[in-house]
Amino acid sequence: MSSKPLSADWQARAGQVSIPGQAFIDGKYVNALSGATFDCISPIDGRLLGAVASSQADDVDCAVASARKAFEDGRWSQQSPASRKKVLLRFADLIRAHAEELALLETLDVGKPITHSLRVDVPASARCIAWYAEAVDKLYDEIAPTGPGALAMITREPIGVVGAIVPWNFPLIMASWKLGPALAAGNSVVLKPSEKSPLTAIRIAALAVEAGLPDGVLNVLPGLGDPAGKALALHMDVDCIAFTGSTVTGKRMLEYAGQSNMKRVWLECGGKSPNIVMADCPDLDRAASAAASAIFFNQGEMCSAGSRLLVQESIRDELLEKVLAIARTLEPGDPLDPATTLGALVDDLQMRRVLGYIESGRSEGAVLRTGGNQVRQGTGGFYVQPTVFDQVSGTMKIAREEIFGPVLATMTFKDAAEAVRLGNDVIYGLAAAVWTRDITAAHRMARSLRAGMVYVNCYDADDITVPFGGFKQSGSGRDKSLHAFDKYTELKTTWVDLS
């Protein structure tokens, strides 16, 4: 099937799609109590998608009260794991059944290619919900080896009301990473999506209730970070904040917890990940393809993006030419065209931020090898070419700060020790990669790199079964895998004297 009629079909659907714009509290769609709204603008062409409820502190109070009541009366928290499993599996099935609707909302909202929304974001979100549903009735509590005079039971209990604050780069996936384990464990959740990407979060709230989730267990509050996100993080009746976003905002979450009730705070924040290619790389073509994908997929709007390409001196020219050849084929296109692989940045502010970093790279002496420009200006959308800098030093802003756009900084090193030193020489520690034939060297470098995820001869390999999170200022705690339950549960010891 050609891309043209499909593109026309998605365009037609875009003109007819219903935009969900209300908050979701206690099982119902409601306006903000103040009546305030904000405009939801599509980065594809600057079109107004609709008005969305702008939640305020009093809306947060209502949502938290609803979540607390639902938790305390046990309508969800006291259901058996097997019962929660059935509901969450139905929820995952409904996400799959509404895949095209959700994919279209995601693409219109954040500008990512429709093919990626449909084939990556929606299926991954459904799989996440289903995986935690399947996992929850397979977790066992513990009996401590205390001896015959006592019985010490260690049980895992839901933490209570979870405030989940998620970003705009993968709105549905990031929401699912929080909702899956938090709901499976028996918590109630107040989900605050980014004001830049509220649509899929609002929509799936109704799907969750349709699946059988009791009213009040999941509430969704669209709104600005301040006041809505701030009020949620400061709320005295929220037991946990699970946040994904910038390191700057993550630090505020820690401050808000200290100013309020010392609620648990789990952070998945920024990254400036090194992709290290040694001279004995087993396949330069594959490494080049992975390097391009690591920074240009999702328009570079990824916390785990391989934004620093570290190449051993002897292969620098050869590898860089291969990366450049790929980058020059990736021109931003219409996100509603299924043939498009590089879409729009999320908004004008983010585009200006990316272009500012590109200008910084130029002014600080890095060599711009390709890209660097805004394109498709006539569309009214926000598009930037894939951009590659060479001869980048570790002191430049483009080598040290998270850009969150399609901008690659290329650096060289002499040996493995220097590669590790350069790789670790940032405040972040989310991901890293090493390309080498030497398995011993790979293990040694992986142990030395201060990152939560180290890929060997690949980049951004992914599965729900492995934890996702970082060291240093990339955050704390882990999303995905069974380890995510640690964020949404408390351990209780019950000691019974048998003497």
Which descriptors apply to this entry?
single chain; 499 residues; alpha/beta; seven-stranded mixed beta sheet; six-stranded mixed beta sheet; 15 helices; 39% helix; 21% strand; disordered N terminus
Describe this structure in words.
This protein is of the alpha/beta class. Helices cover 39% and strands 21% of the residues. The chain has 15 helices and 24 strands. The chain has helices at 3-16, 57-72, 81-97, 99-110, 114-136, 171-184, 199-210, 225-234, 247-259, 284-296, 316-327, 348-363, 397-400, 416-424, 439-448, and strands at 23-25, 28-30, 37-41, 48-53, 142-143, 150-158, 161-165, 188-192, 218-220, 240-244, 264-268, 274-277, 308-312, 367-370, 374-375, 383-384, 387-390, 407-413, 428-429, 431-435, 453-456, 471-472, 475-476, 489-497. The protein has a seven-stranded mixed β-sheet, with helices on both faces. It has a six-stranded mixed β-sheet with strand order 9-8-7-10-11-23, sandwiched between helices. A three-stranded antiparallel β-sheet has the order 5-6-24, with no helix packed on it. Helix 5 runs parallel beside helix 6. The longest helix is centred in the N-terminal third of the chain and has 23 residues, at 114-136. The N and C termini lie far apart (75 Å).
